[in-house]
Specification:
Elements: E1 2-8, E2 14-22, H1 30-38, H2 53-65, H3 71-79, E3 90-92, H4 93-102, H5 112-119, E4 126-128, H6 129-143, H7 147-155, H8 167-177, H9 185-188, H10 222-225
Antiparallel strand pairs: 1-2, 3-4
Helix pairs in contact: 3-7, 5-6
């Protein structure tokens, strides 16, 4: 790449510099590169254009806030739940109730009685997505619940049949199931008072050939006392 410059002399008169200067693709002239090389340093490249930090942060927040599955996607998935012949365009009351139970929409404020009453207003066993939106709108107004809250729960409840358990509840369930003090029957005999497993002695009736009766608490103390 070549450049053509206009130079002013000491008397204020200008003239064109017809000499051609070679300019590198990165915007640094060959002369500057030669001077830098003579001085033992390298020319600084042109600064790269960077996106504003605030803009990048906003994009990241939008990506995190955006739902991975839409409400219409969930409608299609639950309308096929339990019905292999369904094309995902119509949903039944039973499928709707399963969806709402999984999404925790059916609770103290909204019951299956409420959903049944409002669903049967359409006088059909199956309704489309358009009618289902009307059904939810009518249900929300009657039960005084925000429609946006209902749809948000329905969109984020996960795939059909997948129960979402919080980490706290899962940990409590594991603690309860592994508490040996609450075991009964033969399972209780597999652990000692501290919760440590007895091994094979806890699973089989091992014959004690010591001569002592079962449950005797002063075993091997006779010689020490006499």
């Amino acid at each position: 790449m070549y450049s053509h410059s206009h130079i002013m002399d000491g008397n204020g008169n200008g003239h064109d510099d017809c000499g051609l200067r070679t300019v590198a693709p990165n915007g640094i002239s060959r002369a500057s590169m030669s001077e830098a090389a003579a001085n033992g340093s390298s020319p600084s490249p042109a600064p790269a254009t960077e996106a504003p930090v605030a803009e990048l942060a906003q994009l990241a927040l939008e990506e995190e806030a955006a739902p991975k599955v839409s409400f219409s996607d969930q409608f299609k998935a639950f309308s096929k739940f339990g019905d292999t012949k369904s094309d995902g365009k119509l949903i039944t009351l039973s499928q709707s109730d399963k969806w709402m139970k999984q999404a925790k929409v059916i609770d103290k404020k909204i019951t299956t009685t409420d959903t049944g009453i409002h669903f049967k207003k359409f006088k059909a066993l199956k309704i489309s997505l358009t009618d289902y939106n009307k059904f939810l709108d009518d249900l929300a107004k009657t039960r005084k619940v925000e429609l946006s809250e209902i749809k948000q729960k329905l969109a984020s409840c996960g795939a059909p049949g997948v129960a979402q358990v919080s980490a706290g509840k899962a940990a409590a369930a594991v603690d309860r199931l592994t508490d040996t003090s609450k075991y009964t029957g033969s399972h209780k005999e597999r652990f000692d008072a501290t919760g440590k497993g007895k091994g094979i002695a806890g699973r089989r009736n091992v014959v004690d050939g010591s001569g002592y009766v079962s449950g005797y608490q002063h075993k091997d103390t006779y010689d020490g006392a006499h």
